[in-house]
Every structure is written in structure tokens, then in C-alpha cells.
């Protein structure tokens, strides 16, 4: 308004001049609307709609540009100057007294009305950025993202909230001049600028990195200028400044004391209870799924009060790995596999545990062998990159000493077959075993399935029928592959709560030499390397196809080989020796039907297999089981050709396809 110098043409009262300044931005909005409507009216006929999103973007950009100007103009009546005689007048309108009467009162009413613009803009922007934006990004709502892009397009992905922080900073800079007292104004402005520098330095919100450096430098420069300018202030209340300085000094002392107390309390807490109760040291390909299974079972036990550390889910910075082992763990659990002794990071973890006297126990899988003296002496030849641990303070001699130390550690030896009962037994041993590092005697616990072995085949079959009769979902897994069995157990634990409300849909895991229960409708096949060479899997797949059961394949390994011509040739070659019922060619046909369904990846041993990732995949599997409309398998020209098959049919283990297709279809549709 000063630029236009309208006083040359007409005389305006202070109230009119103030109202014109405040509502001038509305003129820009009106002009923008007119231009937009003109564009809509003159555009081509095939372009339909008013394109309100474009208008919202224009209005939003205008409000961001003029936010400080509009808010500053609105607060003008609150910036009063005190004269030597004690009378206070509005700084920008010297003829208006700050006495809440007359023209000044009308200015306050106009200000209250005008404040609706910046306040509503700030509220809407905050709501859109903090509440709506994350939801719309998950839904891939492109139209919404384009409409409100003026709030965040200048910032890097993930830093959209900085737009709200920037608006808060602008609000603070506008409000500070209203506060009486020169010293407090300078103090508050410096605090706002310093906080802004810290936020910019930590967040680095701008898309171009150099812009972050520029903003931090400019803010620092402005802070220095204001600090220097404060030296020339004359109307300074010395007593007030001294009070502020004393308050800041006390606040800094309290901060120092708080940090010391917090650090000492953290030290005492870590000494008695560390953040993680167990650290599972394992080699990915050999025991990744088993480690995930142990974590799932351990956190369910009453005796486990702390957290369980598995690197793929709890580690974000590899440089902090050994720090976690040395200072944040109560127990280190070494999952002994064939190759764990030749993995430098695993040996670095164990060495760190030994140095810091962390309680350690070995869970020995069937292929684990304690380190021999030959391996210890020739370790560098077997693991050349072990010298890279020297940068982290771990020497070759320390690793060799750790290998000898591992021979004397308490050990839990596992048999070759894994199941849920054995897993719980391992966890129970880990909870109750008191591990004492240092000079300890060798303590070996051998776990086995003796209780199950004592039962004859018929008794076990009767027990399982009583337990799982009525189940509609069975998990078929290569029981010779311990990692595949661990994957099946993890899948069972994560999927069961999701399907618990649907009767009979909780899956059970089939054992060796076992056919699917008569009530089973869906076979979940855990696809691991070489699983179709297992005679039991081949036999169950063929009998399931004869019963027209549906199938859902689960890819449990990153290196799993999908069917090719050579794959089927190998299956055919192996099928002749499996001893399965029916023709060997049936297996190849059934395997093709298995992979006619879209497989779901569920790999707990993967490097990126976090809890969140596995939960998403478990939800996908549950959806496929409950409403995925899986296709039933079929076995053409299948007829019983032996007394064993006739007996199996009489027991209801599988029926010819011609007699069971319709019944199974009705059962499947009812469950889905």
C-alpha cells in the first residue's frame, strides 16, 4: 500500500488503511480465481472438469509466499510504542492510541476476523501433512498428492513435516515483535533461529543438499547480526537481563545434572538388566529361519522379560553390532552350523562376547562340529578376510582364542528332526540354564524325540487324528530340511492368529509318512531346494491331487529353483525311486499344477526378513487361505491299483477324483 501512495488521490483513515493492508491478499486470490476460470472457459472442449486441484495449488503457494506479510500486517495493532509521557500508540499508526477504545477497538475486531486466514491455513496444512499425507501415500492417491504438493515438493521424501515446522518458525517470528521489552525480543528471536539451525542440520529437509547448507549458514549469519545489534540497544532493563541470564545458567546446570543422572541410571539399569536378554548369533543360510523361530518362541515364554536380538530385525547400523553384543546383551546364543566358524562377523560377535564376559551357550545343529586345533592354527588360510576385524579392535589371535574357548561352552545338541515340541524344549533349556563365562566345565544337553519314538506308529497316528481332526489346512514340508521345517513353524505361528476365527482353518504341519487328514481342503507346500525329491512329499502331493485338494505354494528360500524342463526331467527321474502310489508321471503333472498357483514368498532366513515384512506376507497367506479362491488339483486316470491304495481309500485318506471333486468344491466354497 505504501508503494501505491494512494494518499495522493484520497484520504483514508488508519482503520481503512489497516483493513486494506490486511485484506490485500484477498485481491490476489480473486485475480488467481478469475485467471483460472478464464482458462477453464477457453480450454479445449475435451478437457472436462474445473480442475479445482490446480486452483488449490495456486492458492496454497500464494498463502505460503505471503504468510509472514499477512500475519505481520494482521498483528500491527498489537505492536504499540510507549512514549516518554506513558501514552502508548500503534507503531504504524501513530495517531491511534492503544487503549481498546474507538478506532483501536475496531482494528482489533478486524484483526480477529482476519486471523481466520493464517490460522486456518496453518491448521489445514498441519492436518494434511501429519495425518492425511501418510495415509494417502499408502493408498497411492496420486490426485491428492498432486493437489497438496505445494506443501512438500520442495523437501526430500520423508521430510514433508518440515513444512509445518517452517510455518511454526514464521509464526514465532511474527509474534515476537508483539511482546514488550527489547531484551526479551532479541532473546526469543535468537532462540527461534538457533532451534531452526539445529532442525535443518539434523533433518536436511531440502531436496538439494546445498540448500540445506545455505539455509543453515544464512540463519547463523542472521543470528550473529541480531546478537551484535543487541549491543547498541539503549532502553535495556538491566535487572530483567540479569534475571534471564541467571535463568539460562540454572537451566544449563540442570541439563548437565540431568544428563549425568540419566547416564548413571542407565549404567545401573544395564548392569542389572540389559536391553536384550538374548542375542542369536547365526549364519543366515544355515540357521536364519531357525533363529527367527527361536525368537518367536522365546518372546512367548514367561521367563523372558527382555528383548531377543536378531540382526535382520533389530540392527540398522552394522558399526554398532559389536557394541550391542558387548554392552546390551545378557546371553549370547550361538546357533552352531557347519559354516558359522568361517563367518568373520559371527566370530567377531562371539569374540566380543568372550572379551566382555557375556554369558554364552551353543545350540548345536546336526551338522555342527566344534573347532578343531587344525582349524584354529590355519584359521587365516580358511578365512582370509578375518583380518578386516582388526579395524574394529579384534585381532586374529583373539579369534583363535575364542575358537578354543568355544569348545568348553555349554552346549545343547539337537537331533536331525525339528518340530514345535523340540523348539519349546530348546527355549526352556535356554531360559533355565545358568551360563557362567570364564572357567566353566563343559555342560552338554542332548535333546531328542525319545518320547515320540517310544510310541508305535499306530498310537502316534491315533493321537494326531484326535488332535488335528477337523483341520482344513495342512502344511507340507521337507522334514529332512531343518530350515524348511523352521520356516513352516514360523508360518504356522504367524498365520494361526489371523485365521483363528474361521473354523478349522488353523494350519497343522504334517509329519513324515503321513497323509493329509480327511477334513483337509488346502495343502500349503513349503518349497525348499530339493523338496520334491523327498518320497513323502511326492506321495502326499499325488494323493492330494487324487482328492482334488487345493494347493498354495510358499517359497521358503531365495535360491529355490522354479520348474523348468530340466526340473521336470529330474522329478521324473527321481519319482521312479520314491515308491509313491500311482504312476511316476503323476508327480510331474501335480508339480506343474502346484506352480499354476501364484506362489507367496515367506523367507525368515532372508537378509531383509524383518518382523514387519513377515507380518505382511503372513497376512497375504491368510487372505489366500480364507478368500483367495485357490484352484483344486486333479489327477487324471487315477484308479487304485494295489491293496494298499484300496485300504487307504477305505480309510478315507484319499478318494478318486471322480467321486470327490464335487464334495471338495462345496467344502472349499463353504470355507472361503
TrEMBL record:
Q: What is this protein called?
A: Uncharacterized protein
Membrane-traversing stretches? 20-42, 54-76, 107-130, 159-180, 186-204, 216-234, 240-265
UniProt keywords, alphabetically? Membrane, Transmembrane, Transmembrane helix
Source organism per UniProt: Polarella glacialis (Dinoflagellate)
Amino acid at each position: 500500500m505504501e508503494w501505491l501512495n494512494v494518499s495522493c488521490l484520497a484520504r483514508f483513515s488508519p482503520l481503512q488503511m489497516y483493513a486494506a493492508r490486511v485484506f490485500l491478499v484477498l485481491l490476489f486470490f480473486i485475480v488467481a480465481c478469475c485467471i483460472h476460470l478464464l482458462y477453464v472457459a477457453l480450454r479445449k472442449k475435451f478437457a472436462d472438469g474445473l480442475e479445482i486441484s490446480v486452483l488449490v495449488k495456486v492458492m496454497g503457494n500464494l498463502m505460503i509466499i505471503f504468510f509472514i506479510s499477512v500475519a505481520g500486517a494482521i498483528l500491527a495493532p498489537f505492536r504499540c510504542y510507549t512514549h516518554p509521557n506513558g501514552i502508548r500508540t500503534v507503531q504504524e499508526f501513530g495517531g491511534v492510541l492503544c487503549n481498546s477504545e474507538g478506532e483501536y477497538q475496531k482494528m482489533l475486531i478486524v484483526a480477529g476476523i482476519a486471523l481466520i486466514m493464517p490460522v486456518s491455513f496453518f491448521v489445514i496444512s498441519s492436518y494434511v501433512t501429519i495425518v492425511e499425507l501418510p495415509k494417502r501415500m499408502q493408498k497411492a492417491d496420486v490426485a491428492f498428492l498432486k493437489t497438496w504438493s505445494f506443501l512438500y515438493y520442495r523437501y526430500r521424501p520423508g521430510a514433508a513435516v518440515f513444512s509445518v515446522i517452517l510455518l511454526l518458525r514464521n509464526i514465532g517470528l511474527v509474534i515476537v515483535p508483539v511482546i514488550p521489552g527489547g531484551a526479551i525480543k532479541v532473546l526469543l528471536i535468537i532462540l527461534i533461529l538457533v532451534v531452526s539451525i539445529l532442525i535443518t542440520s539434523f533433518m536436511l529437509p531440502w531436496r538439494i543438499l546445498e540448500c540445506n547448507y545455505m539455509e543453515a549458514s544464512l540463519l547463523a549469519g542472521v543470528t550473529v547480526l541480531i546478537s551484535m545489534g543487541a549491543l547498541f540497544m539503549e532502553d535495556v532493563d538491566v535487572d530483567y537481563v540479569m534475571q534471564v541470564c541467571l535463568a539460562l545458567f540454572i537451566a544449563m546446570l540442570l541439563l548437565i545434572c540431568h544428563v549425568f543422572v540419566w547416564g548413571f541410571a542407565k549404567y545401573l539399569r544395564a548392569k542389572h538388566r540389559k536391553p536384550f536378554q538374548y542375542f542369536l548369533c547365526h549364519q543366515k543360510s544355515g540357521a536364519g529361519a531357525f533363529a527367527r523361530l527361536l525368537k518367536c518362541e522365546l518372546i512367548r515364554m514367561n521367563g523372558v522379560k527382555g528383548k531377543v536380538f536378531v540382526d535382520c530385525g533389530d540392527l540398522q547400523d552394522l558399526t554398532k553390532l559389536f557394541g550391542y553384543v558387548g554392552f546390551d546383551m545378557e546371553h549370547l546364543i550361538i546357533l552352531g552350523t557347519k559354516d558359522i566358524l568361517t563367518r568373520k562377523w559371527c566370530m567377531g560377535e562371539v569374540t566380543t562376547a568372550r572379551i566382555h564376559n557375556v554369558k554364552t551357550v551353543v545350540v548345536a545343529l546336526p551338522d555342527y562340529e566344534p573347532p578343531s586345533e587344525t582349524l584354529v592354527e590355519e584359521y587365516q588360510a580358511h578365512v582370509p578376510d578375518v583380518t578386516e576385524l582388526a579395524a574394529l579392535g579384534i585381532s586374529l589371535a583373539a579369534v583363535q582364542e575364542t575358537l578354543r574357548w568355544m569348545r568348553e561352552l555349554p552346549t545343547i545338541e539337537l537331533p536331525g528332526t525339528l518340530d514345535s515340541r523340540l523348539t519349546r524344549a530348546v527355549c526352556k533349556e535356554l531360559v533355565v540354564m545358568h551360563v557362567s563365562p570364564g572357567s566353566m566345565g563343559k555342560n552338554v544337553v542332548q535333546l531328542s524325540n525319545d518320547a515320540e519314538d517310544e510310541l508305535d506308529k499306530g498310537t502316534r497316528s491315533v493321537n494326531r487324528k484326535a488332535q488335528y481332526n477337523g483341520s482344513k489346512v495342512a502344511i507340507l514340508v521337507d522334514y529332512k530340511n531343518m530350515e524348511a521345517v523352521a520356516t513352516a513353524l514360523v508360518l504356522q505361528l504367524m498365520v494361526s492368529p489371523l485365521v483363528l476365527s474361521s473354523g478349522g482353518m488353523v494350519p497343522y504341519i504334517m509329519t513324515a509318512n503321513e497323509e493329509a487328514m480327511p477334513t483337509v481342503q488346502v495343502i500349503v507346500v513349503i518349497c525348499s531346494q530339493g523338496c520334491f525329491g523327498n518320497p513323502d512329499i511326492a506321495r502326499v502331493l499325488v494323493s492330494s491331487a487324487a482328492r482334488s485338494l487345493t494347493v498354495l505354494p510358499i517359497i521358503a528360500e531365495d535360491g529355490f529353483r522354479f520348474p523348468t524342463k530340466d526340473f521336470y526331467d529330474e522329478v521324473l527321474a527321481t519319482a521312479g525311486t520314491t515308491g509313491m502310489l500311482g504312476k511316476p508321471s503323476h508327480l510331474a503333472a501335480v508339480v506343474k499344477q502346484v506352480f499354476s498357483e501364484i506362489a507367496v514368498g515367506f523367507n525368515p532366513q532372508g537378509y531383509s526378513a524383518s518382523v514387519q515384512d513377515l507380518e505382511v506376507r503372513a497376512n497375504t497367506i491368510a487372505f489366500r487361505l480364507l478368500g483367495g479362491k485357490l484352484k483344486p488339483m486333479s489327477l487324471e486316470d487315477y484308479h487304485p491299483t494295489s491293496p494298499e491304495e484300496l485300504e487307504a481309500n477305505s480309510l478315507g485318506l484319499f478318494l478318486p477324483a471322480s467321486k470327490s471333486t464335487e464334495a471338495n468344491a462345496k467344502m472349499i466354497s463353504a470355507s472361503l
